[in-house]
Amino acid sequence: MSDQAARVEELLLGGERKYTRAQVCEKAGVPQERATALWRSLGFATVGEDAVVFTDADADALRATHDLMYQGLLDPDTATATARMLGQHLSRLAEWQVDVLREVLTANPELLTDERHVTALIERLVPELERLQDYAWRRHLSAHAGRALARPGEIQENRTAVVGFADMVGFTTLTRRTDDAGLVDIVDRFDAITAEVVADNRGRIVKMLGDEVLFVADTPRDAAEIALGLLAAADADPDLPALRAGLAYGRVLSRFGDVYGSVVNIAARLTSVARPGTVLIDRALADELKPLDEYLIRHRRPVSVRGYSRLRLAVLRRATDPTLIDTVHRATKLLTRDEDDSLPAIPLQPDRHRRRRKR
Protein backbone atom coordinates (compact mmCIF):
# COMPACT_ATOMS: atom_id res chain seq x y z
CA MET A 1 0.00 0.00 0.00
CA SER A 2 1.38 3.40 -0.98
CA ASP A 3 1.84 6.18 1.53
CA GLN A 4 -1.05 8.12 0.00
CA ALA A 5 -3.40 5.11 0.15
CA ALA A 6 -2.39 4.50 3.75
CA ARG A 7 -3.13 8.13 4.55
CA VAL A 8 -6.62 7.84 3.04
CA GLU A 9 -7.34 4.65 4.98
CA GLU A 10 -6.11 6.19 8.21
CA LEU A 11 -8.32 9.21 7.62
CA LEU A 12 -11.40 7.05 7.02
CA LEU A 13 -10.79 4.65 9.91
CA GLY A 14 -9.86 7.30 12.43
CA GLY A 15 -6.32 6.00 12.91
CA GLU A 16 -3.91 3.34 11.75
CA ARG A 17 -4.57 -0.38 12.02
CA LYS A 18 -2.52 -1.69 14.96
CA TYR A 19 -4.59 -4.19 17.02
CA THR A 20 -5.73 -7.76 16.60
CA ARG A 21 -9.20 -8.79 17.75
CA ALA A 22 -7.94 -9.93 21.15
CA GLN A 23 -5.84 -6.80 21.61
CA VAL A 24 -8.62 -4.32 20.82
CA CYS A 25 -11.01 -6.15 23.16
CA GLU A 26 -8.41 -6.05 25.93
CA LYS A 27 -7.80 -2.34 25.35
CA ALA A 28 -11.56 -1.60 25.45
CA GLY A 29 -12.19 -3.92 28.40
CA VAL A 30 -14.91 -5.83 26.52
CA PRO A 31 -15.25 -9.65 26.30
CA GLN A 32 -14.45 -11.00 22.82
CA GLU A 33 -17.80 -12.76 22.54
CA ARG A 34 -19.71 -9.51 23.05
CA ALA A 35 -17.41 -7.60 20.71
CA THR A 36 -17.80 -10.22 17.98
CA ALA A 37 -21.60 -10.08 18.28
CA LEU A 38 -21.47 -6.29 17.97
CA TRP A 39 -19.25 -6.38 14.88
CA ARG A 40 -21.49 -8.94 13.20
CA SER A 41 -24.54 -6.81 13.96
CA LEU A 42 -22.83 -3.83 12.39
CA GLY A 43 -22.22 -5.90 9.26
CA PHE A 44 -18.42 -6.02 9.49
CA ALA A 45 -16.66 -8.99 7.96
CA THR A 46 -15.19 -11.54 10.39
CA VAL A 47 -11.39 -11.40 10.52
CA GLY A 48 -8.77 -13.90 11.65
CA GLU A 49 -7.33 -13.98 15.15
CA ASP A 50 -3.95 -12.67 14.01
CA ALA A 51 -5.20 -10.02 11.57
CA VAL A 52 -4.09 -6.53 12.59
CA VAL A 53 -7.11 -4.52 11.44
CA PHE A 54 -8.41 -2.55 14.44
CA THR A 55 -7.70 1.04 15.42
CA ASP A 56 -8.01 3.19 18.52
CA ALA A 57 -11.40 4.33 17.18
CA ASP A 58 -12.59 0.69 17.28
CA ALA A 59 -11.51 0.43 20.90
CA ASP A 60 -13.31 3.67 21.79
CA ALA A 61 -16.54 2.46 20.11
CA LEU A 62 -16.42 -0.86 21.93
CA ARG A 63 -15.86 0.84 25.26
CA ALA A 64 -18.72 3.29 24.68
CA THR A 65 -21.15 0.49 23.80
CA HIS A 66 -20.06 -1.52 26.82
CA ASP A 67 -20.56 1.49 29.11
CA LEU A 68 -24.05 2.14 27.75
CA MET A 69 -25.10 -1.41 28.50
CA TYR A 70 -23.63 -1.57 31.99
CA GLN A 71 -24.96 1.84 32.98
CA GLY A 72 -28.45 0.50 32.35
CA LEU A 73 -29.19 2.75 29.37
CA LEU A 74 -29.27 -0.12 26.87
CA ASP A 75 -29.79 -3.81 27.54
CA PRO A 76 -27.64 -6.22 25.46
CA ASP A 77 -30.51 -7.16 23.12
CA THR A 78 -31.36 -3.53 22.42
CA ALA A 79 -27.69 -2.68 21.86
CA THR A 80 -27.36 -5.52 19.35
CA ALA A 81 -30.55 -4.54 17.52
CA THR A 82 -29.43 -0.90 17.42
CA ALA A 83 -26.07 -1.93 15.98
CA ARG A 84 -27.83 -4.02 13.32
CA MET A 85 -30.01 -1.11 12.26
CA LEU A 86 -27.06 1.29 12.17
CA GLY A 87 -24.98 -1.15 10.16
CA GLN A 88 -27.66 -1.68 7.52
CA HIS A 89 -28.46 2.00 6.98
CA LEU A 90 -24.91 3.32 7.20
CA SER A 91 -23.64 0.64 4.83
CA ARG A 92 -26.06 1.90 2.18
CA LEU A 93 -25.09 5.49 2.92
CA ALA A 94 -21.38 4.70 2.59
CA GLU A 95 -21.94 2.88 -0.71
CA TRP A 96 -23.83 5.87 -2.09
CA GLN A 97 -21.11 8.27 -0.96
CA VAL A 98 -18.42 6.19 -2.67
CA ASP A 99 -20.50 6.28 -5.86
CA VAL A 100 -20.63 10.07 -5.58
CA LEU A 101 -16.86 10.19 -5.14
CA ARG A 102 -16.43 7.98 -8.20
CA GLU A 103 -18.60 10.34 -10.23
CA VAL A 104 -16.51 13.31 -9.08
CA LEU A 105 -13.31 11.58 -10.12
CA THR A 106 -14.79 10.54 -13.47
CA ALA A 107 -15.88 14.11 -14.16
CA ASN A 108 -12.44 15.43 -13.14
CA PRO A 109 -9.90 12.95 -14.57
CA GLU A 110 -7.02 15.32 -13.79
CA LEU A 111 -7.42 14.37 -10.12
CA LEU A 112 -6.38 10.82 -10.95
CA THR A 113 -3.01 11.90 -12.34
CA ASP A 114 -1.63 12.32 -8.83
CA GLU A 115 -2.62 10.40 -5.68
CA ARG A 116 -2.06 13.54 -3.66
CA HIS A 117 -5.02 15.18 -5.39
CA VAL A 118 -7.32 12.30 -4.42
CA THR A 119 -6.03 12.38 -0.85
CA ALA A 120 -6.59 16.12 -0.61
CA LEU A 121 -10.14 15.71 -1.95
CA ILE A 122 -11.00 13.03 0.62
CA GLU A 123 -9.39 15.01 3.44
CA ARG A 124 -11.69 17.88 2.58
CA LEU A 125 -14.79 15.85 1.78
CA VAL A 126 -14.98 13.42 4.73
CA PRO A 127 -15.17 16.04 7.53
CA GLU A 128 -17.85 17.93 5.58
CA LEU A 129 -19.91 14.77 5.13
CA GLU A 130 -19.46 13.96 8.80
CA ARG A 131 -20.76 17.38 9.81
CA LEU A 132 -23.71 17.09 7.42
CA GLN A 133 -24.64 13.64 8.77
CA ASP A 134 -24.42 14.84 12.34
CA TYR A 135 -26.58 17.87 11.54
CA ALA A 136 -29.25 15.79 9.78
CA TRP A 137 -29.27 13.22 12.58
CA ARG A 138 -29.75 15.87 15.27
CA ARG A 139 -32.58 17.56 13.36
CA HIS A 140 -34.41 14.25 12.88
CA LEU A 141 -33.73 13.33 16.50
CA SER A 142 -35.25 16.61 17.62
CA ALA A 143 -38.34 16.12 15.44
CA HIS A 144 -39.00 12.60 16.72
CA ALA A 145 -38.34 13.61 20.32
CA GLY A 146 -40.77 16.50 19.94
CA ARG A 147 -43.53 14.19 18.74
CA ALA A 148 -42.86 11.77 21.60
CA LEU A 149 -42.95 14.51 24.24
CA ALA A 150 -46.11 15.99 22.73
CA ARG A 151 -47.90 12.68 23.37
CA PRO A 152 -46.29 11.40 26.59
CA GLY A 153 -49.14 9.00 27.34
CA GLU A 154 -48.88 7.18 24.01
CA ILE A 155 -46.45 4.32 23.50
CA GLN A 156 -44.47 5.39 20.49
CA GLU A 157 -43.76 1.86 19.32
CA ASN A 158 -47.49 1.24 18.88
CA ARG A 159 -49.41 4.29 17.68
CA THR A 160 -52.16 5.32 15.31
CA ALA A 161 -50.88 6.52 11.95
CA VAL A 162 -51.41 6.31 8.21
CA VAL A 163 -49.11 4.06 6.22
CA GLY A 164 -48.72 4.61 2.50
CA PHE A 165 -47.02 3.04 -0.48
CA ALA A 166 -46.49 4.59 -3.90
CA ASP A 167 -44.79 2.90 -6.81
CA MET A 168 -43.96 3.52 -10.45
CA VAL A 169 -46.26 1.69 -12.85
CA GLY A 170 -44.55 -0.57 -15.37
CA PHE A 171 -41.11 -0.19 -13.82
CA THR A 172 -40.08 -3.78 -14.63
CA THR A 173 -40.84 -3.24 -18.31
CA LEU A 174 -39.05 0.10 -18.15
CA THR A 175 -35.86 -1.54 -16.89
CA ARG A 176 -35.75 -3.77 -19.97
CA ARG A 177 -35.85 -0.91 -22.46
CA THR A 178 -33.83 1.74 -20.60
CA ASP A 179 -30.05 1.86 -20.27
CA ASP A 180 -28.33 2.17 -16.91
CA ALA A 181 -27.86 5.94 -17.12
CA GLY A 182 -31.51 6.49 -17.98
CA LEU A 183 -32.61 4.20 -15.18
CA VAL A 184 -30.47 6.08 -12.67
CA ASP A 185 -32.02 9.37 -13.80
CA ILE A 186 -35.54 7.99 -13.32
CA VAL A 187 -34.82 6.59 -9.86
CA ASP A 188 -33.07 9.79 -8.78
CA ARG A 189 -36.00 11.88 -9.99
CA PHE A 190 -38.46 9.63 -8.16
CA ASP A 191 -36.40 9.91 -4.98
CA ALA A 192 -36.26 13.71 -5.34
CA ILE A 193 -39.99 14.32 -5.75
CA THR A 194 -40.74 11.82 -3.00
CA ALA A 195 -38.46 13.61 -0.54
CA GLU A 196 -40.01 16.98 -1.44
CA VAL A 197 -43.66 15.94 -1.22
CA VAL A 198 -43.31 13.87 1.95
CA ALA A 199 -41.33 16.58 3.76
CA ASP A 200 -43.71 19.36 2.66
CA ASN A 201 -46.63 17.46 4.18
CA ARG A 202 -45.03 16.48 7.50
CA GLY A 203 -44.63 12.80 6.68
CA ARG A 204 -41.67 10.48 7.08
CA ILE A 205 -40.06 8.22 4.51
CA VAL A 206 -39.55 4.81 6.08
CA LYS A 207 -37.60 3.42 3.14
CA MET A 208 -37.17 3.55 -0.61
CA LEU A 209 -37.48 0.20 -2.37
CA GLY A 210 -36.19 0.96 -5.85
CA ASP A 211 -39.41 1.83 -7.68
CA GLU A 212 -41.47 2.15 -4.50
CA VAL A 213 -41.61 4.33 -1.39
CA LEU A 214 -43.03 3.44 2.02
CA PHE A 215 -44.03 6.44 4.13
CA VAL A 216 -46.02 7.25 7.26
CA ALA A 217 -48.01 10.29 8.35
CA ASP A 218 -49.53 11.20 11.69
CA THR A 219 -52.81 12.56 10.31
CA PRO A 220 -55.19 11.39 7.55
CA ARG A 221 -55.03 14.80 5.82
CA ASP A 222 -51.22 14.76 5.66
CA ALA A 223 -51.24 11.23 4.22
CA ALA A 224 -53.85 12.16 1.62
CA GLU A 225 -51.82 15.20 0.57
CA ILE A 226 -48.68 13.10 0.24
CA ALA A 227 -50.31 10.44 -1.93
CA LEU A 228 -52.17 12.89 -4.17
CA GLY A 229 -49.12 15.17 -4.32
CA LEU A 230 -46.86 12.32 -5.43
CA LEU A 231 -49.23 11.33 -8.23
CA ALA A 232 -49.55 14.95 -9.39
CA ALA A 233 -45.77 15.50 -9.34
CA ALA A 234 -45.17 12.34 -11.37
CA ASP A 235 -47.87 13.32 -13.86
CA ALA A 236 -46.22 16.73 -14.32
CA ASP A 237 -42.78 15.18 -14.91
CA PRO A 238 -42.38 13.91 -18.50
CA ASP A 239 -39.45 11.70 -17.47
CA LEU A 240 -41.38 9.71 -14.87
CA PRO A 241 -43.93 6.95 -15.42
CA ALA A 242 -47.32 7.18 -13.73
CA LEU A 243 -47.57 6.38 -10.03
CA ARG A 244 -50.21 4.55 -8.02
CA ALA A 245 -50.66 4.57 -4.26
CA GLY A 246 -52.36 2.80 -1.38
CA LEU A 247 -53.10 4.16 2.12
CA ALA A 248 -54.32 2.47 5.30
CA TYR A 249 -55.10 3.87 8.75
CA GLY A 250 -54.78 2.25 12.17
CA ARG A 251 -52.39 1.02 14.83
CA VAL A 252 -48.81 0.74 13.62
CA LEU A 253 -45.85 -0.90 15.31
CA SER A 254 -42.69 1.19 14.86
CA ARG A 255 -39.41 -0.55 15.54
CA PHE A 256 -35.93 0.81 14.76
CA GLY A 257 -37.19 3.09 12.02
CA ASP A 258 -39.36 0.48 10.29
CA VAL A 259 -43.11 -0.14 10.56
CA TYR A 260 -45.04 -3.37 10.95
CA GLY A 261 -48.59 -4.63 11.31
CA SER A 262 -51.77 -5.27 9.35
CA VAL A 263 -52.04 -1.59 8.37
CA VAL A 264 -48.74 -1.89 6.48
CA ASN A 265 -49.93 -5.07 4.75
CA ILE A 266 -53.25 -3.49 3.74
CA ALA A 267 -51.54 -0.42 2.27
CA ALA A 268 -49.24 -2.67 0.23
CA ARG A 269 -52.17 -4.77 -1.05
CA LEU A 270 -54.14 -1.66 -2.04
CA THR A 271 -51.17 -0.35 -3.99
CA SER A 272 -50.85 -3.63 -5.87
CA VAL A 273 -54.44 -3.43 -7.18
CA ALA A 274 -54.59 0.33 -7.79
CA ARG A 275 -54.79 1.59 -11.36
CA PRO A 276 -52.19 4.02 -12.71
CA GLY A 277 -52.76 7.53 -11.38
CA THR A 278 -55.10 6.28 -8.63
CA VAL A 279 -54.99 6.36 -4.83
CA LEU A 280 -56.82 3.54 -3.03
CA ILE A 281 -57.60 3.82 0.68
CA ASP A 282 -58.99 1.42 3.25
CA ARG A 283 -62.37 1.78 4.97
CA ALA A 284 -60.90 3.25 8.17
CA LEU A 285 -59.13 6.06 6.33
CA ALA A 286 -62.18 6.72 4.16
CA ASP A 287 -64.25 7.30 7.30
CA GLU A 288 -61.66 9.81 8.56
CA LEU A 289 -61.43 11.73 5.28
CA LYS A 290 -65.11 11.76 4.32
CA PRO A 291 -66.00 14.85 6.46
CA LEU A 292 -63.28 16.90 4.73
CA ASP A 293 -64.64 18.94 1.82
CA GLU A 294 -61.39 18.98 -0.13
CA TYR A 295 -61.53 15.25 -0.91
CA LEU A 296 -63.90 13.05 -2.85
CA ILE A 297 -64.31 9.46 -1.64
CA ARG A 298 -65.81 6.82 -3.90
CA HIS A 299 -66.29 3.36 -2.41
CA ARG A 300 -65.59 0.33 -4.58
CA ARG A 301 -66.47 -3.31 -4.39
CA PRO A 302 -64.39 -5.34 -1.91
CA VAL A 303 -61.44 -7.13 -3.50
CA SER A 304 -59.71 -10.40 -2.69
CA VAL A 305 -55.96 -10.05 -2.20
CA ARG A 306 -53.33 -12.12 -0.47
CA GLY A 307 -54.26 -12.39 3.20
CA TYR A 308 -57.64 -10.62 2.83
CA SER A 309 -60.64 -12.27 1.17
CA ARG A 310 -62.88 -9.16 1.09
CA LEU A 311 -60.84 -6.02 1.52
CA ARG A 312 -63.03 -2.91 1.61
CA LEU A 313 -61.59 0.03 -0.25
CA ALA A 314 -62.33 3.40 -1.79
CA VAL A 315 -60.80 5.72 -4.37
CA LEU A 316 -59.42 9.02 -3.09
CA ARG A 317 -59.45 12.12 -5.29
CA ARG A 318 -59.38 15.84 -4.79
CA ALA A 319 -62.75 17.52 -4.91
CA THR A 320 -61.12 20.04 -7.26
CA ASP A 321 -59.80 17.36 -9.62
CA PRO A 322 -60.05 18.90 -13.14
CA THR A 323 -61.31 15.64 -14.62
CA LEU A 324 -64.13 15.52 -12.10
CA ILE A 325 -64.99 19.18 -12.66
CA ASP A 326 -65.19 18.58 -16.42
CA THR A 327 -67.44 15.57 -15.89
CA VAL A 328 -69.81 17.51 -13.60
CA HIS A 329 -69.80 20.49 -15.96
CA ARG A 330 -70.74 18.34 -18.95
CA ALA A 331 -73.53 16.64 -16.99
CA THR A 332 -74.88 19.98 -15.76
CA LYS A 333 -74.80 21.43 -19.25
CA LEU A 334 -76.84 18.55 -20.63
CA LEU A 335 -79.49 19.05 -17.94
CA THR A 336 -79.76 22.85 -18.35
CA ARG A 337 -79.24 23.54 -22.05
CA ASP A 338 -81.14 26.40 -23.68
CA GLU A 339 -83.95 25.76 -26.05
CA ASP A 340 -81.81 26.69 -29.04
CA ASP A 341 -79.18 24.23 -27.88
CA SER A 342 -81.61 21.48 -27.04
CA LEU A 343 -81.34 17.87 -28.03
CA PRO A 344 -83.38 16.68 -31.07
CA ALA A 345 -87.03 16.26 -30.12
CA ILE A 346 -88.25 12.73 -29.55
CA PRO A 347 -91.95 12.20 -30.28
CA LEU A 348 -93.90 10.95 -27.30
CA GLN A 349 -96.82 9.67 -29.40
CA PRO A 350 -96.46 6.73 -31.76
CA ASP A 351 -96.34 7.46 -35.46
CA ARG A 352 -99.92 6.83 -36.60
CA HIS A 353 -98.82 6.61 -40.20
CA ARG A 354 -96.55 3.69 -39.47
CA ARG A 355 -98.23 0.49 -40.38
CA ARG A 356 -98.42 -2.11 -37.67
CA ARG A 357 -96.43 -5.20 -38.29
CA LYS A 358 -98.66 -8.11 -39.03
CA ARG A 359 -98.60 -10.80 -36.41
TrEMBL record:
- Lineage top rank: taxon: Bacteria
SUPFAM superfamilies membership: Nucleotide cyclase
Q: Which InterPro entries does the record cross-reference, listed alphabetically? A: A/G_cyclase (IPR001054), Adenylyl/Guanylyl_Cyclase_3/4 (IPR050697), Nucleotide_cyclase (IPR029787)
Q: Which GO terms describe its biological process?
A: cyclic nucleotide biosynthetic process; intracellular signal transduction
> Where's the Guanylate cyclase domain?
162-271
Extract one GO molecular function annotation from the record: adenylate cyclase activity
Q: Which SMART domains match?
A: CYCc
Q: Pfam families of this UniProt entry? A: Guanylate_cyc
PANTHER family hit by this protein: ADENYLATE CYCLASE, TERMINAL-DIFFERENTIATION SPECIFIC, ADENYLATE CYCLASE, TERMINAL-DIFFERENTIATION SPECIFIC-RELATED
The similarity annotation says: Belongs to the adenylyl cyclase class-3 family.
Quote the protein name from its UniProt record. Answer: Adenylate/guanylate cyclase domain-containing protein
